[in-house]
Structure formats: C-alpha cells, structure tokens
Amino acid sequence: MKIRYPTWVRTFLVGAMVTGWLPLAAQAGPRDDTLVVALPKALTTVDRLYSIQREGLIVAELTDDGLFGVNTDTLEFEPLAAESFHWTGDTRLDVTLRDNVRFHDGSTLTADDVVYTYEWVLNAASETSRGPVIRGWLDSVEKTGPLSVRFNLKMPYPMALRDMAVSIPLRKRGTYEAAAGDQPHNGIGPYRVKRFNVGRDIVLERFADYYPESPKAGAAIRNIVFRIIPDEGTQQAELLSGGIDLMMDVPPDVADNVSALPGVARLQGNDIRIGYLTLDAAGHSDPDSPMTDVKVRRAINHAINREAITRYLVRGSAEAIPYACHPRQFGCEADGPRYPYDPEKARQLLAEAGYPNGFSFKLWAYRDKVIAESIASDLKAVGLNADLRYVKLNVFSKMRNDQQMEAFFASYGGGGTADASASTGVHFIANTSRNFTGDASLADTVLAAERTIDPDERRRLYRTALNRIAEQAYWVPLFSYSQNYLLSPALLLPVPEDGVPRLWQAAWRPQP
C-alpha cells in the first residue's frame, strides 16, 4: 500500500531532498541489518574515560564494559566483566574476573589490564573526566592473581560499584602510552568501533568474540550507526524517509505530531532525571537577597503549580515530586513538609517576610524554555517578577559555579543512578558549587550517608537530610522526566527504566 503523507509533510520532504538534507537512497533498517540512530550532539571521543556526555554513555554501553554493569530490570549493580566480588570489611573489595573476556583486538582481559586501568584513573596527570571522583574514595588497586584484583578504599563508600559501572570502562595495559596513541578504540563491549568521524558519524559492528556469560550477550543487530544530526527537523525528516531508525529524547509535542504519521512508532518511558529550582538560601549571590528568608522560599514552593506543569508540559510517565530526589532512587523516603500549589498561602508568606508587593529577581535556565516560562508566570501571579535569563549551558554553568544566581531552574539525571546519592549527595554536600544552602549540618548528614555501608543507616540519614531540605525549602522539587522515542515500526527496543537506552537490546521485528 502506498503511504500518502499529509500535505505539509510532503512539502517538507521534497524541500529537504532538494536542499540535500536527506539521502536519496536510505540505508537504515533490517534490509542490511543496520540500526541507524540520530545523535543531536557530536562526540569528540568514543572513550568514556574522557567523556561525561549522555550520548557518550549510550555509545559506551555498546563498545565498553566495566567490572560491573546496571541490571536493566532492577537498576541494581551486578558483575559484568567481573565473575564475582566480595567485601572484606567496609574498605576492601576483592574481585575475580571472568576468564574468557576478550578485547576487540583479540587479546584476553587479565588482572594486569584492570590494575592498569584504575592506576591510570588514579593518576591525576591522566586528566580523566571522572578521575577526581574516583580519587576521592579509592586509595589503590593491586593484583592478587592472574584473574583477581583487590581495591583498597580510603573510607567506606556505598557507591563504589556505581562509579565502577558507570565511569570506568576497562582498558588494555599500555593503551594510553605514546606508541599506542593512534590505535583504534579497543574495548571489551558487545560492539567494536569500525569507524569514527568526529562530528559526522560513528559506525559499530557486533563483536563476534564477546563473552557469552555477559548480561549484555546476544545482541541481535549486526551494525549500529550513530549519525550526528543537530537539527530536530532534519531528524524528523530522516525518520520519515527511512534515513534513520531511531530518534531519542524527543520533546512531547514533537512526539505527539510525528508519531501520528504513517511509518512512525512511539515509545515512552521513565527517566531518573528530575527538574528543580535551587534558591540561594546562603546568600552567595547577594547577602541581602530575599532568598535568604525561609518564608520567601516556602512562598515560592507554594506559588508553582508543579502538578499542572508535569501533566501538561512534561507529560508521559512524568510525575510531580515532593522531595529532592527521584522516587525510584534508594533512600528517597521522607516525611517532611510538602508544598501544595496555593497562591494565597504564597502571598501570605511573602507579606509576613516583608514583601507584600513582591520583588524582582533573575531566574536562570538553560533547558526546557517553555517550562521555565511557565514557572516565571506562576511566580508573577503572586507578585514575584522573575526576570528569566535563558542562556546556553556553558554560560549557565559558569554562573552557577561562581554561585552568582539567586534562583535557577535545572535538571539532573545522575547517569540514571537509582540512589539518592546521585541527586541529594551531589547538590547538598559541602564544597560543591551546586550547594546554595550554607547549611553545614545538612552537608554533614549527607556526607555521613555517602560514607555508610549499612543500607538501613543510609535510609535514616537520607530521610533526615531530605526532611531538612524540605523544612528549609532550599529547593523547589518539581517533577521527574519522561523519555520519548520515535522509531521505525520495524524496530523492537525495550523502554529503559532509567532513561538510558541500551541499544544492544534492540532487534528487528519478525518479517511476515
């Protein structure tokens, strides 16, 4: 049956082909067993040790393995290249490797490679992206046998397996020496890098010698190609024409419109990412800022209709959140105050704080402009003139790092980590530019949770911290995010629970 697109789509596709946006002969799909995925941002490297981009994590899930990985059903951490592990006390971790893990060059993974990898990260001169974090808790690593290693921690650290799983892919001994500098990427993941053109594409092919005991074994699709397509409209046109098979992180309004067209399927799923407002309670930006008054901060919490924003703007599986964490995260349990939408209560609190006519301030944001505008509108309704400063991420990050913001709207995903440390720990520990509370007692509580192995004690400490954050209204917790994917109907893709698609799980639908 011939597909007939609406007039606006036919016009767009014809114009796109004339201007050269679309290939005249599409190569995506099951015909040549090649999954083509659009990436909006270019990667400067496919080495996860030197990238913190979400796109880099998606690629690294295919090309690399660490000692541990994330169980896609439970979101707990489990052995990957490791066969087994056990803790001796709170600060010593012994790991045994699988005996048949091969690098893409055919060599076998040994304890020497693991020691090399971690010693490289521990060396500050290597300048790996997550090195400072790892050096904060890991003292040393030593070989205890041909396939066994020991990690000596500086202190109890419950998120050690998380950091190993998300941040430390294993490297062959000698990888970063000068003589090996021009070698192709040599990982141990289910796909190997066949070609990498910076700013253009990444071509992967399934690795035939991938170890069958891995939880990631059994990849069904032979080739995966990532095409760098920054323009969202071009991505849509490519999907409609068959030039790509998958769009990720699609805005809900785009997903609504495009998924109604023939030849396009839509998936929706959860995301550990949360949206929030930070208020400068410490007065870093201005010691006389109204944000230093708890009644003002509570008023702002009551002024924002987070339920309506979630329902009508974020949509999907998103939900309004009451506390400074994602409900699926371990330790995200609290019974502190909640702030229902109540404009009258907001006005009352502002008057009690000495601002019956409100005041003006700058509200900073770098993403989700429509949501930021809705927040500003809610604040204006109670007399607060929020001057929205919508800027690029690099500008936003500098202002935040310099702590020159009275209030800002942002989001945080924490690499999909289902643990409160990925949100509460990052934002409320001492000596971080994200902490605008000035609350030393809160920082001590969060630090204690970060250094406690006992899960019950960690829950208690996080409850204490989350209750304190709510009582003092340091944040305005807003909502969890929902992920939208647009894809070819020929493609099967499990919807991730944490917002990180695992493309090694993708497959083609059986052909009739």
TrEMBL record:
One of its GO terms (biological process) is peptide transport. InterPro entries: Peptide/Ni-bd (IPR030678), SBP_5 (IPR039424), SBP_5_dom (IPR000914). One of its GO terms (molecular function) is peptide transmembrane transporter activity. Residues 76-422 form the Solute-binding protein family domain. Keywords: Signal, Transport. GO terms for cellular component: ATP-binding cassette (ABC) transporter complex; outer membrane-bounded periplasmic space. Belongs to the bacterial solute-binding protein 5 family. PANTHER family: OLIGOPEPTIDE-BINDING PROTEIN APPA, PERIPLASMIC BINDING COMPONENT OF ABC TRANSPORTER. This is Substrate-binding protein, ABC-type oligopeptide transporter.
